[in-house]
Every structure is written in C-alpha cells, then in structure tokens.
Amino acid sequence: MLTTGPRGTKDILPDLSSHWRYIESIARDICNRSVYQEIRTPIFEHTELFLRGIGETTDIVEKEMYTFIDRGKRSITLRPENTAAVVRSYLEHKLYADLQPSKLYYIGPMFRYDRPQAGRYRQFHQFGVEAIGAKGPVIDAEIISLAVLFFRKLGLNELMLYINSVGCPKCRPVYRTQLKDFFHEKLSFLCEDCQSRFERNPMRILDCKNDKCAEISNNAPHMVESLCEDCSTHFSQLKQLLTAAQIDYIINPRLVRGLDYYTKTAFEIQYPPLGAQSAVCGGGRYDGLVAECGGQPTPGIGFAIGLERVLLALEKQKLLPEVNTAIDVFVAPLIGAAQAMAFGLLVKLREQGVTCDMDYMERSLKAQMKYANKYPAKYVALIGEDEIAQGKVMFKNMATGEQQLTDSKDIIRMIKEGMEK
Ligand code: HAM
C-alpha cells in the first residue's frame, strides 16, 4: 500500500510536467489577453456550500463528495468543482464592489468519488473561468469563445460545441410539469436512477446514458420550446453572437448538465475520439447561485475544462510539444579535487542566468561526456589537474568539438556569443 497512490489519483512525473505547464500557459495566456484574473481558493470548503450551491439531489452531492468532519467538528468537503467556491469568495471579499463583471479564472485540482477509468479520476484538474455580474448574452458568447480559443490554440480539431437553454425559475416549472406528464406513463421502463430522478429532478432523465432511457427521452418535449420571452431572446441573441464570431455550434435540447445551479445558457464541448469520457468542457449560466449563497441576486456564467482529458486528446492527435531538456553548460570535474572549483563555477553560472548542471557521481571523463550529450549540453566545462593548476577551465563547444583553456569569467561572454551566432 505504501508504494501505491490512492485509486483514481495520478502522479505527474517530471517527464510529463512540462506538458502540464504547456497547456496551463496557453490557458493563462488566453485569460490575460481577455482580462480574466486568476483567483486561488482553498481546496476544501464548508460542506454546506456545495450542498446549497451544486444541489442536494445531484450525483456529485449524493455520491461523489469527499466529506469529513475535521478536528473542530466541522463538516468539510474537498472541492468537487470550483464555481460555488468562487462565488463564496466573490461575496466574502465583496468583489461586487469592484468594476463589474468580475472576470476570474482558476487552474487546480478537484475531487470526486467517481468510478475511475480512462479520462475519469478521483483527483483531476480543471481550468475554469467565471464572469460574475453581467446578465446579457455577450458575456455568454465571450465565455464560450474563451473555451473555443483554448482548444483552437492547442490545435485540437474534431471538437463539437453543444448549446442549450435550461430556462429560468419562471419558465422551468412549466417545462418540468410537461416533462413529468411525458415520463409518467413510461416510468417503469426507465432505469432505477431515473425513476428516482422523476420526482426530484426530472430534467436529469434527459441526459441519462442508459440506452433505454435515452431512447424514451428522444421524444420528450424540449425546454427551448417552453422558454419564457426573456430566456428565448437571450438564447437567440447568443446564437447570433456565436455566428458573428464564426463559432460553430449544435443545439442539443437534451443537454441539461449535472449541477443544479444552471439557468438559461448551458453548453458542453465534446471530443468524440475520447469515447465514454468525451466531455472536455462544461459550463453555463448560474443567475441564481450568488443569491443562493447569501448575496444579492447577481448573474454569472462560466465553464470548466478537464485538463487530463485535454492531455489525452493532445496525445491522441500527437500535438504535444517535444520536451526540451537541453542545457547551456555541463560542468565536469575530472578528479575529486576539482569538485570545489566546479561547484564554484556552477553557482556563478547559475547566478548569471546560465542553465547548467554538473557531475555529482565522480564519473569517468568518458561517462561524463556521454552524460553531457544526453541533455544535450551546448558546452562542457572540463576541470582536471592542469586546469586547477592554472585556475582555468577547458571549455568545449559540443557542436564544433573546439575546445580552449578559458578563464571562468570569459565563459559567460562565450556562451552569449555562441547564442547570437
Ligand atoms: P462539470 O461538467 O462537472 O462542470 O466539469 C467540467 C469538466 O471537468 C468536464 O467536462 C470534464 O472535462 C472534467 N471532469 C469532471 N469530472 C471529472 C473526473 N472525474 N475526471 C476527470 N475530469 C473530470 C463543472 O465542474 C462546473 N463547475 C463548470 C462551470 C463553471 N459551470 C459554470 N462555471
């Protein structure tokens, strides 16, 4: 047990961490350009926040939360998602007093007690964006465009953007009744989960993955046909905005999302080659969430992208950049007595911004040269008996094979000249 991590978790080893930095840098770059600022909230929150925010009848709250009582007898939950926490922070720090909307983003781990499989983990990472304080559809289109830009920037093709409107507290109850009327007679044909959803959350029946439930749902009435005027206008304008930005979309009337806070716009981006776990991004509007968390009624919208799934997709399409392990200088002490001089040079070079490493294992000259080629190193600074005697280093250019006895203070100049060539 001590040599295996918990089920559903993954170590990100050094050879893969550069891939993570790569996708994270693209996310940050898009957010900076679009004036979204980073917010970092704790990875645990009071359980109550998620019960109220995500909804007590959702799968996340019913089956997937990591909840425990801490030593102060408080119920604490590792965040299964970050929208509720961002809203909590928005209220706690009165971000509504700043210029609105508050445009925020985050990158970090989330925790769900899911059944692990390819693309589904118990600790996973999301890049998420939230815009709180604007009610018009332009911000919906902007949020969707950020997700699309992120995927385009990574070079991912074959993505499908699905949109829907899930209405608002005004029009949804009417639709809910229609839906219940529709499913009422078919109840015994639905799966056990959907039978229990029927009373508590009938819209969730629409996105059940069970084949029989999906077949029955095919003929169910659509929310978009029951929208009130406000929701209907919002949805039409969103479609126009997406078209203006040349963002292709498919309307999916059965897209309802698994969190209770959504109102009006709901969307998902799928990457079908990932199979069962093909949802790489999910998001939508949550105009009731701020009030639910104790604030003034304030609209909001956002999305979250599952970064493990993005990496799987990039791997599939061979879009991950080569890992660059090259260094400027490898410092090679050839005898034990040269270690102090080598180490002094190493620290001086690093201080000057040079990327360098040295031999720590008392390897032979041949083994050190082999090692230097592995990085590869542009230069090797050899220090043996003669070099110690003269207080200089034998500086070798690995590309040309040229070497010369060099004063250590000239090394920086030579590296810079070499870089300019
Ligand atoms: P979500 O649809 O639950 O939405 O999750 C968003 C994305 O996180 C999914 O599309 C998927 O890529 C990834 N994801 C979810 N669960 C797992 C898992 N167990 N393993 C790996 N990846 C996973 C939310 O979390 C909302 N907070 C999104 C949002 C932000 N809505 C408004 N603002």
UniProtKB/TrEMBL annotation:
One of its GO terms (molecular function) is catalytic activity, acting on a protein. Homodimer. This is Histidine--tRNA ligase. Keywords: Aminoacyl-tRNA synthetase, ATP-binding, Cytoplasm, Ligase, Nucleotide-binding, Protein biosynthesis. Gene3D superfamilies: Anticodon-binding domain, Bira Bifunctional Protein, Domain 2. It catalyses: tRNA(His) + L-histidine + ATP = L-histidyl-tRNA(His) + AMP + diphosphate + H(+). InterPro entries: aa-tRNA-synth_II, aa-tRNA-synth_II/BPL/LPL, Anticodon-bd, Anticodon-bd_dom_sf, His-tRNA-ligase, HisRS-like_core, HisRS/HisZ, HisRS_anticodon. GO terms for cellular component: cytoplasm. Residues 23-333 form the Aminoacyl-transfer RNA synthetases class-II family profile domain. NCBIfam families: hisS. It comes from the Bacteria. Pfam families: HGTP_anticodon, tRNA-synt_His. One of its GO terms (biological process) is histidyl-tRNA aminoacylation. It comes from Methylomusa anaerophila. Its EC number is 6.1.1.21. Belongs to the class-II aminoacyl-tRNA synthetase family. Its main location: cytoplasm. L-histidine binds at E81, N82, T83, R112, Q126, E130, R257, Y261, Y262. It is found in: Cytoplasm.
